[in-house]
Amino acid sequence: MTNSKLFSDSKKVIPSGVNSPVRYFEPYPFFTKKSNGAYLWDVENKKYIDFCNGYGALLLGHRRKEIINAVSNQLSKGTLYCTPTEAETELSKLIIGNFPSIDKVRLVNTGGEATMTAIRLARGFTKKKKIIKFEGCYHGAHDSVLVKAGSGSAHNGISVSEGGLDEVSKNTLVVQYNNIEDFQKTINQNKDIAGVIVEPILANMGLILPEKNFLYDLRKITKENNIPLIFDEVVTGFRVSPGGAQEHFGIKSDITTMAKALSNGFTIAAVGGRKEIIDLLSPGGKVYQASTFAGNPISVSAAISSIKTINKLKNKLYSKLERFNLLFTTALDDMATDMHIAHQINFTASMFQIFFTNKPVINYETSKKADSKKFQKMFRTLLKKGIFIAPSQFEVVFLSDAHTENDLNKTLDAYDAALKSVKN
Ligand code: PMP
Protein backbone atom coordinates (compact mmCIF):
# COMPACT_ATOMS: atom_id res chain seq x y z
CA MET A 1 0.00 0.00 0.00
CA THR A 2 1.17 3.52 -0.74
CA ASN A 3 0.53 6.63 1.35
CA SER A 4 -1.46 8.13 -1.51
CA LYS A 5 -3.73 5.06 -1.86
CA LEU A 6 -4.29 4.88 1.91
CA PHE A 7 -5.18 8.56 2.00
CA SER A 8 -7.75 8.27 -0.78
CA ASP A 9 -9.28 5.33 1.12
CA SER A 10 -9.27 7.10 4.48
CA LYS A 11 -10.89 10.23 3.05
CA LYS A 12 -13.94 8.16 2.15
CA VAL A 13 -14.58 7.11 5.74
CA ILE A 14 -12.80 9.65 7.96
CA PRO A 15 -13.49 13.40 7.66
CA SER A 16 -10.55 14.89 5.73
CA GLY A 17 -8.87 11.50 6.16
CA VAL A 18 -7.49 12.36 9.63
CA ASN A 19 -8.62 11.99 13.23
CA SER A 20 -7.18 15.32 14.39
CA PRO A 21 -6.88 18.43 12.18
CA VAL A 22 -3.18 19.14 12.53
CA ARG A 23 -2.33 15.67 11.19
CA TYR A 24 -3.31 16.75 7.70
CA PHE A 25 -0.79 18.41 5.41
CA GLU A 26 -0.60 18.84 1.66
CA PRO A 27 -0.84 16.89 -0.51
CA TYR A 28 -1.46 14.08 2.00
CA PRO A 29 0.13 12.84 5.23
CA PHE A 30 2.26 9.71 5.40
CA PHE A 31 0.73 6.67 7.08
CA THR A 32 2.80 5.24 9.89
CA LYS A 33 3.30 1.52 10.19
CA LYS A 34 5.54 1.37 13.27
CA SER A 35 7.76 3.37 15.58
CA ASN A 36 10.78 2.75 17.77
CA GLY A 37 13.07 5.02 19.79
CA ALA A 38 13.48 8.22 17.80
CA TYR A 39 12.00 6.88 14.57
CA LEU A 40 8.80 6.33 12.61
CA TRP A 41 8.44 4.14 9.52
CA ASP A 42 5.72 4.74 6.98
CA VAL A 43 3.87 2.15 4.91
CA GLU A 44 6.34 2.68 2.06
CA ASN A 45 9.17 1.74 4.47
CA LYS A 46 10.56 5.26 4.60
CA LYS A 47 12.22 6.01 7.94
CA TYR A 48 11.77 9.38 9.65
CA ILE A 49 13.57 10.89 12.63
CA ASP A 50 10.59 11.96 14.71
CA PHE A 51 10.54 15.45 16.23
CA CYS A 52 6.77 15.61 16.52
CA ASN A 53 7.02 12.99 19.24
CA GLY A 54 3.31 12.67 19.88
CA TYR A 55 3.11 16.48 20.15
CA GLY A 56 5.44 16.32 23.10
CA ALA A 57 4.13 13.15 24.74
CA LEU A 58 7.10 10.94 23.89
CA LEU A 59 9.72 12.56 26.12
CA LEU A 60 11.40 9.20 26.63
CA GLY A 61 11.04 8.08 22.99
CA HIS A 62 8.84 5.52 21.23
CA ARG A 63 8.38 2.08 22.81
CA ARG A 64 10.52 2.92 25.81
CA LYS A 65 11.53 -0.39 27.39
CA GLU A 66 10.47 0.35 30.98
CA ILE A 67 7.04 1.54 29.90
CA ILE A 68 6.37 -1.25 27.43
CA ASN A 69 7.30 -3.77 30.15
CA ALA A 70 4.94 -2.17 32.67
CA VAL A 71 2.07 -2.06 30.19
CA SER A 72 2.69 -5.64 28.97
CA ASN A 73 2.62 -6.79 32.56
CA GLN A 74 -0.68 -4.98 33.16
CA LEU A 75 -2.19 -6.35 29.90
CA SER A 76 -1.92 -9.86 31.32
CA LYS A 77 -3.92 -8.73 34.37
CA GLY A 78 -6.75 -6.87 32.65
CA THR A 79 -7.46 -3.68 30.75
CA LEU A 80 -10.46 -2.01 32.40
CA TYR A 81 -12.00 -2.65 35.80
CA CYS A 82 -14.02 0.50 36.56
CA THR A 83 -13.32 -0.02 40.25
CA PRO A 84 -10.59 1.78 42.21
CA THR A 85 -7.12 0.24 42.05
CA GLU A 86 -4.07 0.55 44.27
CA ALA A 87 -2.14 1.73 41.22
CA GLU A 88 -4.29 4.89 40.91
CA THR A 89 -3.31 5.89 44.46
CA GLU A 90 0.33 5.12 43.69
CA LEU A 91 0.21 7.29 40.57
CA SER A 92 -1.51 10.15 42.40
CA LYS A 93 1.18 10.05 45.11
CA LEU A 94 3.88 10.19 42.43
CA ILE A 95 2.25 13.21 40.77
CA ILE A 96 1.83 14.97 44.13
CA GLY A 97 5.47 14.16 44.97
CA ASN A 98 6.65 15.93 41.82
CA PHE A 99 4.22 18.89 42.02
CA PRO A 100 4.22 20.50 45.49
CA SER A 101 1.25 22.74 44.53
CA ILE A 102 -0.96 19.65 44.24
CA ASP A 103 -2.66 18.17 47.32
CA LYS A 104 -5.05 15.95 45.41
CA VAL A 105 -5.40 14.85 41.83
CA ARG A 106 -8.10 13.32 39.66
CA LEU A 107 -7.19 11.26 36.60
CA VAL A 108 -8.93 11.90 33.29
CA ASN A 109 -8.17 10.90 29.72
CA THR A 110 -7.20 13.91 27.62
CA GLY A 111 -5.74 17.37 28.05
CA GLY A 112 -9.01 18.92 26.93
CA GLU A 113 -10.94 16.98 29.54
CA ALA A 114 -8.47 18.13 32.19
CA THR A 115 -8.80 21.84 31.30
CA MET A 116 -12.60 21.55 31.04
CA THR A 117 -12.64 20.10 34.57
CA ALA A 118 -10.17 22.72 35.84
CA ILE A 119 -12.36 25.55 34.57
CA ARG A 120 -15.52 24.00 36.00
CA LEU A 121 -13.74 23.61 39.33
CA ALA A 122 -12.67 27.27 39.31
CA ARG A 123 -16.26 28.30 38.61
CA GLY A 124 -17.59 25.97 41.30
CA PHE A 125 -15.06 27.26 43.82
CA THR A 126 -15.56 30.98 43.22
CA LYS A 127 -19.25 30.82 42.20
CA LYS A 128 -18.25 33.23 39.41
CA LYS A 129 -18.64 32.93 35.66
CA LYS A 130 -15.92 34.44 33.54
CA ILE A 131 -12.50 33.05 32.82
CA ILE A 132 -9.43 34.73 31.40
CA LYS A 133 -7.28 33.02 28.81
CA PHE A 134 -4.38 34.32 26.76
CA GLU A 135 -4.24 34.83 22.99
CA GLY A 136 -2.72 31.85 21.24
CA CYS A 137 -2.83 29.50 24.23
CA TYR A 138 -4.50 26.22 23.34
CA HIS A 139 -6.30 24.29 26.04
CA GLY A 140 -8.27 21.69 24.07
CA ALA A 141 -11.24 21.64 21.73
CA HIS A 142 -14.09 22.75 24.03
CA ASP A 143 -16.21 25.88 23.85
CA SER A 144 -14.81 27.81 26.84
CA VAL A 145 -11.26 27.80 25.50
CA LEU A 146 -11.69 27.67 21.72
CA VAL A 147 -11.39 31.44 21.60
CA LYS A 148 -8.30 32.93 19.98
CA ALA A 149 -6.66 29.56 20.49
CA GLY A 150 -3.40 28.32 19.01
CA SER A 151 -2.33 24.95 17.58
CA GLY A 152 -4.53 23.52 14.78
CA SER A 153 -7.20 26.17 15.29
CA ALA A 154 -4.71 29.01 14.73
CA HIS A 155 -3.35 27.23 11.70
CA ASN A 156 -6.77 26.91 10.10
CA GLY A 157 -7.84 30.44 10.98
CA ILE A 158 -10.66 29.27 13.23
CA SER A 159 -10.98 31.29 16.39
CA VAL A 160 -14.46 30.32 17.50
CA SER A 161 -15.64 27.05 16.03
CA GLU A 162 -18.92 26.85 14.16
CA GLY A 163 -21.29 24.93 16.37
CA GLY A 164 -19.63 26.41 19.46
CA LEU A 165 -21.96 28.47 21.64
CA ASP A 166 -21.38 32.23 21.84
CA GLU A 167 -23.20 32.07 25.17
CA VAL A 168 -20.23 30.05 26.44
CA SER A 169 -17.34 31.79 24.70
CA LYS A 170 -18.57 35.27 25.65
CA ASN A 171 -17.64 34.34 29.22
CA THR A 172 -14.04 33.85 28.11
CA LEU A 173 -12.03 37.06 28.20
CA VAL A 174 -8.89 37.05 26.11
CA VAL A 175 -5.73 38.86 27.11
CA GLN A 176 -2.47 39.26 25.19
CA TYR A 177 0.26 36.83 26.33
CA ASN A 178 3.22 38.57 28.01
CA ASN A 179 1.14 41.72 28.55
CA ILE A 180 0.64 42.14 32.28
CA GLU A 181 -0.86 45.64 31.89
CA ASP A 182 -3.60 44.20 29.65
CA PHE A 183 -4.18 41.50 32.27
CA GLN A 184 -4.34 43.96 35.19
CA LYS A 185 -6.76 46.17 33.24
CA THR A 186 -9.05 43.21 32.51
CA ILE A 187 -9.03 42.22 36.18
CA ASN A 188 -9.81 45.82 37.24
CA GLN A 189 -12.70 46.06 34.80
CA ASN A 190 -14.32 42.69 35.58
CA LYS A 191 -15.40 41.60 39.03
CA ASP A 192 -16.84 38.28 37.86
CA ILE A 193 -13.60 36.33 37.17
CA ALA A 194 -13.75 32.66 38.19
CA GLY A 195 -10.28 31.68 37.03
CA VAL A 196 -7.27 32.41 34.88
CA ILE A 197 -5.87 29.69 32.63
CA VAL A 198 -2.45 29.95 31.02
CA GLU A 199 0.21 27.85 29.35
CA PRO A 200 3.22 28.79 31.50
CA ILE A 201 5.32 28.30 28.36
CA LEU A 202 3.24 28.88 25.23
CA ALA A 203 3.77 25.85 23.00
CA ASN A 204 0.83 26.29 20.63
CA MET A 205 1.87 29.38 18.61
CA GLY A 206 5.23 27.92 17.83
CA LEU A 207 7.21 28.29 21.05
CA ILE A 208 6.77 31.50 23.03
CA LEU A 209 8.51 32.00 26.34
CA PRO A 210 7.03 33.97 29.23
CA GLU A 211 8.90 37.24 29.60
CA LYS A 212 10.70 38.00 32.83
CA ASN A 213 8.19 38.49 35.67
CA PHE A 214 5.09 37.71 33.53
CA LEU A 215 4.19 34.53 35.44
CA TYR A 216 5.26 35.99 38.82
CA ASP A 217 3.03 39.01 38.23
CA LEU A 218 0.16 36.75 37.12
CA ARG A 219 0.55 34.80 40.36
CA LYS A 220 0.69 37.98 42.45
CA ILE A 221 -2.34 39.63 40.87
CA THR A 222 -4.50 36.48 40.95
CA LYS A 223 -3.61 35.93 44.61
CA GLU A 224 -4.44 39.54 45.52
CA ASN A 225 -7.84 39.11 43.86
CA ASN A 226 -8.55 35.57 45.17
CA ILE A 227 -8.78 34.20 41.64
CA PRO A 228 -7.63 30.60 41.08
CA LEU A 229 -4.69 30.41 38.69
CA ILE A 230 -4.71 27.38 36.42
CA PHE A 231 -1.40 26.31 34.93
CA ASP A 232 -2.10 24.23 31.84
CA GLU A 233 0.97 21.99 31.94
CA VAL A 234 -0.34 19.52 29.34
CA VAL A 235 2.84 20.14 27.33
CA THR A 236 5.26 21.37 30.01
CA GLY A 237 4.42 18.87 32.78
CA PHE A 238 7.35 16.43 33.10
CA ARG A 239 8.91 17.87 29.92
CA VAL A 240 10.43 21.06 31.29
CA SER A 241 11.39 19.45 34.59
CA PRO A 242 10.04 16.56 36.72
CA GLY A 243 7.71 19.13 38.34
CA GLY A 244 6.85 20.95 35.12
CA ALA A 245 7.07 24.68 34.41
CA GLN A 246 6.02 25.46 37.98
CA GLU A 247 9.17 23.80 39.30
CA HIS A 248 11.24 25.49 36.60
CA PHE A 249 9.93 28.98 37.52
CA GLY A 250 9.33 28.32 41.22
CA ILE A 251 5.65 29.31 41.12
CA LYS A 252 2.70 27.47 42.64
CA SER A 253 -0.57 27.44 40.71
CA ASP A 254 -3.92 26.68 42.38
CA ILE A 255 -4.96 24.12 39.77
CA THR A 256 -2.71 22.24 37.34
CA THR A 257 -3.55 20.20 34.27
CA MET A 258 -1.13 17.70 32.74
CA ALA A 259 -1.19 14.99 30.06
CA LYS A 260 1.29 14.16 27.25
CA ALA A 261 4.64 13.32 28.93
CA LEU A 262 2.76 12.08 32.01
CA SER A 263 2.53 8.64 30.38
CA ASN A 264 4.92 8.82 27.41
CA GLY A 265 2.32 7.87 24.82
CA PHE A 266 -0.78 6.47 26.51
CA THR A 267 -4.18 8.08 26.96
CA ILE A 268 -4.19 9.74 30.34
CA ALA A 269 -4.36 13.24 31.79
CA ALA A 270 -4.79 14.69 35.25
CA VAL A 271 -6.19 17.69 37.03
CA GLY A 272 -4.73 18.46 40.43
CA GLY A 273 -4.49 21.33 42.88
CA ARG A 274 -5.29 22.67 46.27
CA LYS A 275 -7.34 20.27 48.38
CA GLU A 276 -10.21 22.70 49.01
CA ILE A 277 -10.67 23.11 45.25
CA ILE A 278 -10.15 19.54 44.02
CA ASP A 279 -12.37 18.15 46.81
CA LEU A 280 -15.31 19.94 45.17
CA LEU A 281 -15.38 17.18 42.55
CA SER A 282 -18.26 14.72 42.61
CA PRO A 283 -19.33 12.53 44.30
CA GLY A 284 -18.11 14.29 47.48
CA GLY A 285 -18.56 17.74 46.00
CA LYS A 286 -20.99 19.39 43.62
CA VAL A 287 -18.70 19.92 40.63
CA TYR A 288 -19.59 17.05 38.33
CA GLN A 289 -16.91 15.13 36.48
CA ALA A 290 -16.91 11.51 35.36
CA SER A 291 -15.42 9.13 32.82
CA THR A 292 -15.58 5.42 32.05
CA PHE A 293 -11.93 5.18 31.06
CA ALA A 294 -10.50 7.47 33.77
CA GLY A 295 -7.69 5.81 35.70
CA ASN A 296 -7.74 2.78 33.39
CA PRO A 297 -5.07 0.29 34.44
CA ILE A 298 -3.15 0.35 31.15
CA SER A 299 -2.58 4.11 31.07
CA VAL A 300 -2.00 4.21 34.82
CA SER A 301 0.74 1.57 34.56
CA ALA A 302 2.36 3.57 31.74
CA ALA A 303 2.22 6.79 33.78
CA ILE A 304 3.68 5.18 36.92
CA SER A 305 6.51 3.76 34.88
CA SER A 306 7.10 7.08 33.04
CA ILE A 307 7.32 9.11 36.25
CA LYS A 308 9.57 6.56 37.93
CA THR A 309 11.86 6.53 34.89
CA ILE A 310 11.94 10.32 34.74
CA ASN A 311 12.62 10.63 38.48
CA LYS A 312 15.40 8.08 38.26
CA LEU A 313 17.10 9.83 35.33
CA LYS A 314 16.35 13.36 36.54
CA ASN A 315 19.33 15.68 35.87
CA LYS A 316 20.86 13.24 33.41
CA LEU A 317 17.75 13.41 31.26
CA TYR A 318 17.02 17.13 31.46
CA SER A 319 20.60 18.36 31.20
CA LYS A 320 21.24 16.10 28.20
CA LEU A 321 18.13 17.39 26.40
CA GLU A 322 18.97 21.00 27.23
CA ARG A 323 22.52 20.55 25.95
CA PHE A 324 21.28 18.96 22.72
CA ASN A 325 18.76 21.74 22.27
CA LEU A 326 21.35 24.47 22.83
CA LEU A 327 23.84 22.90 20.42
CA PHE A 328 21.15 22.30 17.81
CA THR A 329 19.51 25.72 17.94
CA THR A 330 22.89 27.50 17.99
CA ALA A 331 23.93 25.65 14.82
CA LEU A 332 20.55 26.32 13.22
CA ASP A 333 20.78 30.00 14.09
CA ASP A 334 24.27 30.22 12.57
CA MET A 335 23.07 28.53 9.38
CA ALA A 336 20.11 30.84 8.90
CA THR A 337 22.26 33.90 9.73
CA ASP A 338 24.94 32.85 7.21
CA MET A 339 22.22 32.48 4.58
CA HIS A 340 20.85 35.97 5.43
CA ILE A 341 17.40 34.56 6.20
CA ALA A 342 15.36 36.73 8.56
CA HIS A 343 14.53 34.44 11.44
CA GLN A 344 13.96 33.99 15.17
CA ILE A 345 14.53 30.86 17.18
CA ASN A 346 12.75 30.40 20.51
CA PHE A 347 13.92 27.52 22.63
CA THR A 348 13.84 26.11 26.14
CA ALA A 349 14.38 22.70 27.77
CA SER A 350 13.70 20.13 25.00
CA MET A 351 11.55 22.33 22.73
CA PHE A 352 12.25 24.89 20.01
CA GLN A 353 10.77 26.56 16.98
CA ILE A 354 12.11 28.69 14.14
CA PHE A 355 10.05 31.60 12.79
CA PHE A 356 10.75 33.42 9.53
CA THR A 357 10.51 37.02 10.69
CA ASN A 358 12.90 39.74 11.81
CA LYS A 359 10.83 40.67 14.89
CA PRO A 360 11.06 38.83 18.23
CA VAL A 361 8.15 36.40 18.65
CA ILE A 362 6.56 37.14 22.01
CA ASN A 363 2.81 36.68 21.49
CA TYR A 364 -0.01 35.65 19.12
CA GLU A 365 0.35 38.68 16.84
CA THR A 366 4.10 38.44 16.38
CA SER A 367 3.87 34.69 15.78
CA LYS A 368 1.11 35.20 13.18
CA LYS A 369 3.32 37.71 11.35
CA ALA A 370 6.04 35.13 10.71
CA ASP A 371 6.10 33.77 7.17
CA SER A 372 4.25 30.47 7.46
CA LYS A 373 4.56 29.79 3.71
CA LYS A 374 8.32 29.63 4.21
CA PHE A 375 7.74 27.36 7.17
CA GLN A 376 5.66 25.01 4.98
CA LYS A 377 8.43 24.95 2.37
CA MET A 378 10.95 24.10 5.07
CA PHE A 379 8.64 21.39 6.44
CA ARG A 380 8.31 19.72 3.04
CA THR A 381 12.07 19.66 2.43
CA LEU A 382 12.67 18.24 5.91
CA LEU A 383 10.05 15.57 5.26
CA LYS A 384 11.66 14.61 1.95
CA LYS A 385 14.91 14.19 3.84
CA GLY A 386 13.33 11.93 6.44
CA ILE A 387 12.82 14.46 9.23
CA PHE A 388 9.32 14.69 10.69
CA ILE A 389 8.46 17.82 12.64
CA ALA A 390 4.86 18.83 13.41
CA PRO A 391 3.46 20.15 10.14
CA SER A 392 2.62 23.63 11.39
CA GLN A 393 4.36 26.86 12.30
CA PHE A 394 2.12 26.95 15.38
CA GLU A 395 3.51 23.77 16.89
CA VAL A 396 6.86 22.98 18.44
CA VAL A 397 9.85 20.75 17.67
CA PHE A 398 10.22 18.23 20.50
CA LEU A 399 13.45 16.41 21.37
CA SER A 400 13.30 13.06 23.13
CA ASP A 401 15.69 11.00 25.20
CA ALA A 402 15.91 8.59 22.25
CA HIS A 403 17.55 11.12 19.91
CA THR A 404 21.28 10.57 19.47
CA GLU A 405 23.97 13.03 18.41
CA ASN A 406 24.03 11.25 15.08
CA ASP A 407 20.27 11.86 14.65
CA LEU A 408 20.78 15.53 15.43
CA ASN A 409 23.67 15.87 12.96
CA LYS A 410 21.56 14.27 10.21
CA THR A 411 18.74 16.60 11.13
CA LEU A 412 21.01 19.66 10.92
CA ASP A 413 22.05 18.60 7.40
CA ALA A 414 18.38 18.37 6.48
CA TYR A 415 17.68 21.82 7.98
CA ASP A 416 20.59 23.16 5.93
CA ALA A 417 18.87 21.97 2.75
CA ALA A 418 15.48 23.11 4.05
CA LEU A 419 16.76 26.63 4.79
CA LYS A 420 18.30 26.79 1.32
CA SER A 421 14.89 25.88 -0.12
CA VAL A 422 13.35 28.75 1.90
CA LYS A 423 15.99 31.20 0.69
CA ASN A 424 15.35 30.51 -2.99
N1 PMP B 1 -3.48 22.03 26.66
C1 PMP B 1 -2.35 22.17 25.94
C2 PMP B 1 -1.31 23.13 26.44
C3 PMP B 1 -2.16 21.42 24.78
O1 PMP B 1 -1.04 21.60 24.06
C4 PMP B 1 -3.16 20.52 24.36
C5 PMP B 1 -3.01 19.66 23.12
N2 PMP B 1 -2.03 19.95 22.26
C6 PMP B 1 -4.32 20.41 25.14
C7 PMP B 1 -4.44 21.16 26.29
C8 PMP B 1 -5.41 19.46 24.76
O2 PMP B 1 -5.02 18.17 24.97
P1 PMP B 1 -5.78 16.96 24.22
O3 PMP B 1 -5.44 17.08 22.77
O4 PMP B 1 -5.23 15.74 24.87
O5 PMP B 1 -7.23 17.16 24.49
Automatic annotation (TrEMBL):
Extract the coiled-coil ranges from the record: none
Q: Which reaction does it catalyse?
A: (S)-4-amino-5-oxopentanoate = 5-aminolevulinate
Q: What class of enzyme is it?
A: isomerase
Which Pfam families does its entry note? Aminotran_3 (PF00202)
Which CDD domains has this protein been placed in? OAT_like
SUPFAM superfamilies hit by this protein: PLP-dependent transferases
The record, for Gene3D superfamilies, names: Aspartate Aminotransferase, domain 1 (3.90.1150.10), Type I PLP-dependent aspartate aminotransferase-like (Major domain) (3.40.640.10)
The record's GO molecular-function terms, alphabetically, read:
glutamate-1-semialdehyde 2,1-aminomutase activity; pyridoxal phosphate binding; transaminase activity
The highest taxon in the source lineage is: Archaea
Q: Does the keyword Isomerase apply?
A: yes
Q: Does the keyword Heme apply?
A: no
List localization entries.
Answer: Cytoplasm
One of its GO biological process terms is:
protoporphyrinogen IX biosynthetic process
What name goes with this protein? Glutamate-1-semialdehyde 2,1-aminomutase
Which organism encodes this protein?
Nitrosopumilus zosterae
